[in-house]
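Aim 2 progress update. The chain analyzed this quarter is reproduced below.
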Amino acid sequence: MRQPPLDSQGPFAGLLILGGAIQAGFLGMLAAAPRPGSTAPFLVLFLAVFVCYALAVRLALRPAAGQGSPRHDRAARVALALACLYRCTFLFSPPALSGDLYRYRWDGRVLLSGRNPYLEPPASPALAGIRDGDYPRIEHKEVRTIYPPAAQVLFAAGAAAAPGCLGIKALLVLADLLGIAVLRWLLVLRGLPPLRVIVYAWNPLAVTEGAWSGHIEPAGIVCVVAAAVAIIQKRDLWSTLALTLAGLVKILPLVLLVPLARALRPRALLLPPVLIAAAYWPFRAAGGDLVSGLREYAAHWHGNESIFGVVRAALALVDPAPALKSMIAFVRARVPWSGPLDLLYPYVYPTPLAKAACALALLGCAVAIARRTVDPLRGCYLMTGAALLLSPTLHPWYLLWILPWLCLFPSLPWILLSGLAALAYANLGAAGRAAEPYPWVRLVEYVPFYALLLGGWLRARMRRPARPAVMAPPEAG
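Predicted structure tokens:
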């Protein structure tokens, strides 16, 4: 009897082989953990794992004739099991790519001690009594915390659950696995193959930045995906609640309220400010220092940026500062009560102007998405991508926010960027974080990304059918 082709039996065998190769690569990364001056072995292994991941994604996205068959369902279960294995592989290993996890633990210990984490930075003598062996690993000790209240609660829970960084990492891995389960549910609700969850669950950037470096993004991502499920179920209050909770873990998800505005009732839009005010209320003793860390971050942090770097370089070439200063002085000399214009002098330089230009561009994207009739979830995907590309800072782990949307809206440019982003660690610093990436890193990261993005846009324009000409009605007689 003739055997049916392999594709008709589902992609089980191919995924099993590729999944095993990915696990071997992860074990190799642990054995060749990066350190200052020695990142090449890690990067080679990461890119090799990424190639296996890309082949697995190709299998998962291929229209499978055997979809719904027992072998296809078994492939989906094995995919989830391997996603769990990948994260457990890194769970007990200390972070090697970033020191953020030590800051998380510090904030959690400050809150557990009964103090306000927004009042004093780690370097404050008032907090000397709670310092331990991890204190030297904390970066930017002079800056107050930038993390919102929900993140602070998670840090405290993790610090209380287990010694060292293990408690926080365990909570983040659980959040990541819960997010994968909710994402699979979302795919089913959208009528898409559950196997697409591999796009996020097997992504080596998602695994290493979440389970190894312990970045907080998975705790926010699970809330964002839960908000997407609630939108499909037309439960707008629950969606707004989940999205606001994600914004209280990290601020970025709050921009997604814009594409969801059409799908939400007016009363749901009143919920975010109320919840945010309630969350910050217990820390109100810090006053203006509640956001001083965020102000410091917004004013001075930038790195591995995309569009922002181009805009800043263009403004530096033009150097508009003298002309703008002269304009302000001209107005000050002729217009009474124009004294507040003096406050603009620090912002006429290329970096602040580039930030303002990118903020206006993001606002324009938000208005365009809000005005067009766009599927709310596709609007979230587009808004997330715009926020990342226009941000002054695009650390590799920031790309985790776009990965869940790629399960619904696969994009070769974004998937490729999630692999090339690891090159930002080529010049890993002594503090456990990459310094400003080498100039060639940005070229290798972003030139293929934008080339593929532009090529896809052009192909879509060429495939778009032309509008039929309107025929004039025949004249009578």
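The first helix runs from residue 12 to 31. The chain has two domains: 7-99+161-304+393-459, 305-392. These observations will guide the mutagenesis experiments scheduled for the next reporting period.
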